[in-house]
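Researcher: Go.
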Amino acid sequence: MISLRVGVLSAVTAAGLFAGVPNALAGGIGPRVRSSHAYLRAMIDEAVMRSPTFRDLVAAIGATDGIVYVEQGACKHGVRACLALDVTPAAGFRILRVLVDARQPDWDVMASIGHELRHALEVLENRAIVDNAGIYLFYAETRDAKDRPFETRAATEAGFAVRREVSSFARGKLD
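Model: Structure:
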């Protein structure tokens, strides 16, 4: 789900976010998927390790001009996570925010972040989206179902894939 909530970005460095992951995923300027929240950083680390889908999303974001901050926060409409519908251009980058309710089980947090990172990638793949109006119009025009505003099949599938891969890893059955 995507949120219309506008907030202030945290300027943080996520040290150790890519421990054991090739530097190419970090995109050359440090991690492109960041968080100031220790638990969310740990969940990102775990998801990168456990889920090829999550790892691919992080790598794809690293290949764009985007930086995504994943932070604890409340989303509207009772959803557990959302991509805020705001784009902040800064120093040649487009900065996006994902809000997550960190009071969920670990596997739900990882799946929710994966789902929202897919939304972030949808935005970052479209270089014409440089402001809040652009991101709003993009999702208003590309949503999959009129009864689910701002939702895409790709994000839904990414969230399910991350959940399945994390669960499989936990059972010792890496796919």
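Model: DSSP finds five helices and six strands in the chain.
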